[in-house]
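Internal tracking record. Fields below are filled automatically when a chain is submitted to the structure queue. Please do not edit lines marked as system-generated. If the sequence contains nonstandard residues, flag them in the REMARKS field before resubmitting.
Queue: standard
Priority: normal
Entity type: single polypeptide chain
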Amino acid sequence: QVQLVESGGGLVQAGGSLRLSCAASGRTFSNYAAGWFRQAPGRERQFVAAIAGGGESTLYAGSLKGRFTIGRDSAKNTVYLQMNSLKPEDTAVYYCAARNSPGARTNWDDYNYWGQGTQVTVSS
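SYSTEM-GENERATED OUTPUT FOLLOWS
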């Protein structure tokens, strides 16, 4: 079993930055692909970014590439999402997910474990 806990969300002005962290239990987490998803009120859950188990490859939603960066620190069993140049439309609950395979995926259903989410609110 892997437990994921997101942190780092909050209220930020448009143009600002936030760094979300996903702390995972288990020494094998570094071998698992991980991803970030978000969901805003009244909208469908949206893929944000994913990273391979070894961190050697990443995937991004096309509209977010260049502003958001996913990374991981295997020694700390942590995955992060650096969000820059934030816009009001980035407001959502952000979820961390992991899967017990190395390949990064964009489909929520491909993941085995999920965090509880952290709220990100961007004001104009």
